[in-house]
Specification:
Elements: H1 16-20, H2 41-54, E1 57-66, E2 73-81, E3 90-97, H3 99-110, E4 124-132, H4 142-153, E5 159-166, E6 175-187, H5 188-193, H6 197-220
Antiparallel strand pairs: 1-2, 2-3, 3-4, 4-6, 5-6
The protein binds zinc ion (2 copies).
């Protein structure tokens, strides 16, 4: 189990509602632009990256998008297993933040009598893991692969396999690209409590899946015969 320090839940990050009520120079209209957020999403993503490193991944890139109208946010992190720094596996992780879910959760937490009480379950954001590979020369049987990886991921990390065939020229043979995807709900209650154990378990399973795939990919892409 990971022993990273527990994150402060009341980190000082600007709150959505604070941001919405600024004037154009960023000055608060209601005197609370730097109100205290109930949960710290940026901190969660930072924690996720340090856990990924602890669980045997390299973090190579990250991006953060905010839709200006809806305030929907997308955090993306590019990982791969330590053993595959120069390929052939990439693991793309994304966290999608629906501001309505975040605000509803904040409302419920702010209405709690004691802020140290356990917050309600049922508020989640999807954390999506996507494994990608170079174009496949000897693609595997998808049904067999799907069954085998499902066994590796278990209920904790439900894995789906999909493939796309593309043709550069109509006369060319198809080139198959494969993706393995898992969508895991992140409980806002756990983020609020600073409970990282579920994330640690998921990352451990991600690593097992990655190492298993890493053994198979060289054959698929024609590096070994
Ligand atoms: Zn690397
Ligand atoms: Zn961990």
């Amino acid at each position: 189990m990971c022993q990273l320090p527990r994150r402060l839940r009341h980190a000082e990050t600007p709150k959505y509602r604070g941001l919405q009520s600024c004037n154009r120079n960023g000055a608060p209209l209601n005197g609370s632009v730097h109100d205290v957020a109930v949960i710290d999403i940026a901190g969660f993503v930072t924690d996720l990256k340090s856990h990924a490193v602890d669980h045997g991944f390299h973090v190579h890139d990250e991006r953060h998008f905010v839709e200006t109208y809806s305030l929907r946010q997308l955090w993306e992190v590019d990982l791969h297993p330590e053993e595959a720094c120069n390929g052939p596996i990439d693991l793309h992780v994304s966290l999608e933040i629906d501001p309505r879910t975040l605000l509803s959760f904040e409302d419920v937490v702010l209405a709690m009598d004691d802020p140290d009480d356990d917050p309600p379950e049922g508020f989640t954001f999807p954390l999506v893991f996507t494994w990608t590979f170079p174009p496949l020369v000897h693609p595997p049987d998808l049904l067999v692969l799907a069954t085998e990886v499902a066994g590796l991921g278990g209920v904790e990390l439900p894995l789906e396999v999909s493939a796309i065939d593309s043709f550069h020229q109509v006369t060319d043979a198809p080139e198959r690209s494969l993706t393995v995807v898992s969508r895991v709900p992140v409980s806002l209650a756990n983020v609020y409590k600073g409970d990282n154990d579920p994330v640690c378990a998921v990352l451990d399973t991600c690593r097992n899946v990655s190492l298993n795939l890493l053994e198979r990919v060289p054959f698929w892409i024609g590096d070994i015969h």
